[in-house]
Model the fold of this input.
Amino acid sequence: MAADGSSALADADEPAAPRLGLGAALAVFGVLAVLRLLAGDFRYFFEEDDMSLANGIAAILQGEPGYYLYRYVPQIGYYRLMAFLTDVVGGVAVVPHVMVASSAIAGAAIPAATLLAFRRQLPDHVRLLAAAIVTCTPALWIASQYGNTAVVASAFTVLGLVMLSNRPGTLGTAIALTLCAVGVLVRADAVLMAPVVALLVFRAARTPRQALLTLAIGAVAFVALWFTLRAADPWTAVSAGGAVASHFQASDLVSRFWEHMLWAFSPIPLIFALFGAEALQRRDRDVFLTLAVWILPVFGFYYGAATTTRYFMLSVVPMGIFAACGVRALASRSGRRALAWPTALLALSLHLWVGLGHFRPADPRSVLTAPGYATDDGRMPTGALVYQGYHRDSGVLGPSLRRSAPWGARQPIAVAMDSELGRIDALSDDAGPARVVVLLDSWNAHVFHFHAFKAGAEFEGRDAGAMFLAQTHFSLNGRDIMTIGIPDGDFEALDRIAVEVGDEIWYVAPIEWELPETLASKLPPQRSVGATHSEADRQVRVYPIVEEEPR
Done:
């Protein structure tokens, strides 16, 4: 580092004082927020995780303390934050909209914050390029399109770390530590940033004693907050550590760390990041060490449990800075800098337009429209991000602008659920079934429970058993609605389904067996399943319970 405190990465004729500040960051945030919102997938749920999250948030809004709210205990802050925002905006029906919009806004905040990182040590053009690289990082691009905890937690954490990177005073440090703490509450893996938080606090403090005191006060305040939450909300007493351990110990877990890392950042930015790390290590070891301590805990923790690119979210900012420094270093070594910079920028943006892997060679158009591979959290693109952000499935940009169709209108299973639940809600007191038994499988358990809350159902109770697949009881318009999961739920162990003539059994697709035959042994004596009135739909098939005909 130069004697005046400026980075050796800066050109000799570049002013030491940074020009890009808070105003520039806010302008970048505003532009990106609009673009992210236009690419948001507001049509329906993206995958099983956001279905489950929306279900828990809806339960909170309905005031159901007995409900199993936290499938993901380490993300309790996200549930409460989204519940608060949704309550302000408009209630259960808009939960998915708030979740997606929050991800989009967080996806804009992270690159904007990158523009302010290490302002005294990195020149403006390096930070600007880093912000652009972070904006185009595939993991962040996709996570900004649907409701998830990772991008929201990362936004809070990154804002705190960026503040600390600029050596704030006492008030600034307190605000930064608060932001980092909120990030941990939103998603507990943000605690992996503890080493870099400690390092940055020591960098900013006047003495080691002051740094230790600051960290101690922050730790005590966070622990006090956590125990306050436990006292106010008994569901937080469920072990967050146990939830994390269960993920790592799952028998079907296959970690694909290297492949997920490759496509989380895209190959060409990763190559530039390697060169940038080497250059930064030689020229500014302070920043290099900080970025390394920022990245390595994330890589180390998820090496044995990398099932999605989303797990790399906390490391997109330091990787973007490394890549920007790599471009700067390679361009400065080139004899033709006027050519080197455009070439590097073209290479860095290649994954925005074309697929770099996992496409179909027999279909050349797939390079532009469908490159990607399956992960535990849906399909992850390996390029063509602009197409997959704004033009996929006959257009997301248009529906985002027009709002021509209501949420879920294009999902047959959602339309069928809302239709049948609406029918029950509209029945007169003396008409229709007294009880509805809903048979669910896998992801549609999350979906049905959310749609039940959306229809105004009240939670009555839940039996012990598999999460969301155990017997769960709701009340809607005076009717008892019982859901039970098959085949992984408690259906097989169920001796009898307590239904009478006139009640209904709903069969929610997809379920891979013939319902009437399977149900025969579960019905009370002299009861049988009548013909469904919704065979043509096959998304929610409704079977009335009838008197069994004598043989």
The beta strands are 372-375, 378-381, 435-440, 458-462, 472-476, 479-485, 504-508, 527-529, 540-547. The chain has 23 helices and nine strands. The chain has a mean pLDDT of 85.
